[in-house]
From TrEMBL:
Transmembrane segments: none
PANTHER family found in the cross-reference section: OXIDOREDUCTASE, 2OG-FE II OXYGENASE FAMILY PROTEIN, OXOGLUTARATE_IRON-DEPENDENT DIOXYGENASE, NON-HEME DIOXYGENASE DOMAIN-CONTAINING PROTEIN
Matches recorded under Gene3D superfamilies: B-lactam Antibiotic, Isopenicillin N Synthase, Chain
Organism in which the protein naturally occurs: Ziziphus jujuba
Signal peptide: none
Keyword terms of this UniProt record: Iron, Metal-binding, Oxidoreductase
Protein name in the entry: Feruloyl CoA ortho-hydroxylase F6H1-3
């Protein structure tokens, strides 16, 4: 049954959450009024008077990032000042980016019954999960977003478990982004006096990867809800591909009350520092709050790759950072405990990183 304005809240939850239609299915019924479950408290909606249109996160041409110290400097400065930047001339072919977006549209274009085979209750593996909002059990108000989250273990596991509709395009995007991730981490680590990235350091920085695909359908009352609420990522670095719609906003660290739009730039990739890197750098690189608004006239997709420590790593400020006598700001913590803490609550700004503070 397709929900109408007359159906109860229970029916909407059943349709969206349990039957797997997601907010995409709800949007496609032509629903004209936002259901109550999606109405966010006023303080969680983005008020456009808080957006500074003349400001922008840096756009960095990284074609010479290993040779030109000015490029390395720009990357490190952006990670300290903004926690976010966009990269161009990164070497990932444009067709690979287009194929990843096409793969995303193909998956969300499947019938609800097919997508629901990957829901938390039905998925053959914890590593493959289709869902909606962020953490519906814990949230007072739901978010206007559907997602598929894929934890990468191996190509063989992906072949066996990831949905065929999107698997190949997403795997290729992951493969092609690996060299970029390594370059960025090398540059960021050198500034922290970490000059050698051996196998155990590489695992600590990028030993696990998760690729999410996000779908934000047209929303009947976009000003009353959010696509994604205020949060910082729990990753080391996030590599985000967005389409040409826009809607991602980043908190301005120098004016805590202001938000800055991340405009779509053709062929570019958005990079942001995650909590794990903020903790390892003892607060030098910033994992900055960001959020996505809902859109009243266009569907939007995005494809973040979360580059993480391995779940069984202990993360804490790196010894090279503390060698100068700097006081540690964060305790040592098992990374999977950190991530579980993040997933078990609603989006709540920077509260996850506060959990690791001394
Ligand atoms: C979805 O919308 C989002 C997502 C994000 C994500 C931002 C990131 O930075 S993701 C990068 C996270 N890092 C990793 O995945 C690498 C480390 N991984 C691990 O430590 C583990 O794989 C694990 C994530 C802790 C899961 O371990 P497992 O033993 O399988 O534990 P579970 O009991 O299954 O899960 C624990 C808890 O988390 C919930 N959960 C698990 N996976 C997801 C997921 N992909 N999406 C949402 N929630 C997930 C799970 O339901 C469990 O909670 P319960 O309450 O059900 O017990 C940013 C913004 C977004 O809007
Ligand atoms: O869709 C976007 O632009 C950002 C999504 C996001 O912040 C996330 O998935 O962690
Ligand atoms: Fe995020």
């Amino acid at each position: 049954m397709a929900p109408t304005m007359a159906v109860s809240n229970y029916d909407i939850s059943d349709f969206v959450l349990h039957k797997g239609h997601g907010v995409k299915g709800l949007s496609e019924t032509g629903i004209r009024t936002l259901p109550n479950q999606y109405i966010q408290p006023i303080e969680e909606r983005l008020c456009m008077t808080k957006v500074v249109p003349q400001d922008s996160i840096p756009i960095i041409d990284i074609s010479n990032c290993m040779e030109d110290p000015k490029v390395a400097e720009a990357i490190c400065n952006a990670a300290e000042r903004w926690g976010f930047f966009q990269i161009v001339n990164h070497g990932i072919p444009i067709e690979v980016l287009e194929d990843a977006k096409e793969a995303t549209r193909r998956f969300f274009g499947l019938p609800a019954k097919e997508k629901n085979k990957y829901s938390k209750d039905n998925s053959p593996s914890n590593n493959v999960r289709y869902g909606t909002s962020f953490s519906p059990q814990a949230e007072k108000a739901l978010e206007w977003k559907d997602y598929l989250s894929l934890f990468y273990v191996s190509d063989d596991e992906a072949s066996a478990l990831w949905p065929a509709a999107c698997r190949d395009g997403l795997l290729e995007y992951m493969r092609k982004s690996e060299a970029v991730v390594k370059q960025l981490l090398k540059v960021l680590m050198e500034k922290l006096n970490v000059t050698e990235i051996d196998k155990s350091k590489e695992d600590l920085l990028m030993g696990s990867r998760r690729i999410n695909i996000n779908y934000y359908p047209i929303c009947p009352n976009p000003e009353l809800t959010v696509g994604v609420g205020r949060h910082s990522d729990v990753s080391t670095l996030t590599i985000l591909l967005q389409d040409d719609i826009g809607g991602l906003y980043v908190r301005d660290l120098e004016d805590n009350n202001s938000w800055i739009h991340v405009p779509p730039v053709k062929g570019s990739i958005v990079i942001n520092v995650g909590d794990a890197l903020q903790i390892m750098s003892n607060g030098r690189y910033k994992s900055v709050e960001h959020r996505v608004v809902a859109n009243g006239s266009k569907n939007r997709i995005s494809v973040p790759i979360f580059v993480n420590p391995t779940p069984n790593d202990i993360i804490g400020p790196l010894p090279q950072v503390l060698a100068t006598g700097e006081k540690p700001l964060y305790k040592e913590i098992l990374y999977s405990d950190y991530v579980k803490y993040f997933f078990r609550k609603a989006h709540d700004g920077k509260a996850t990183v506060d959990y690791a503070k001394i």
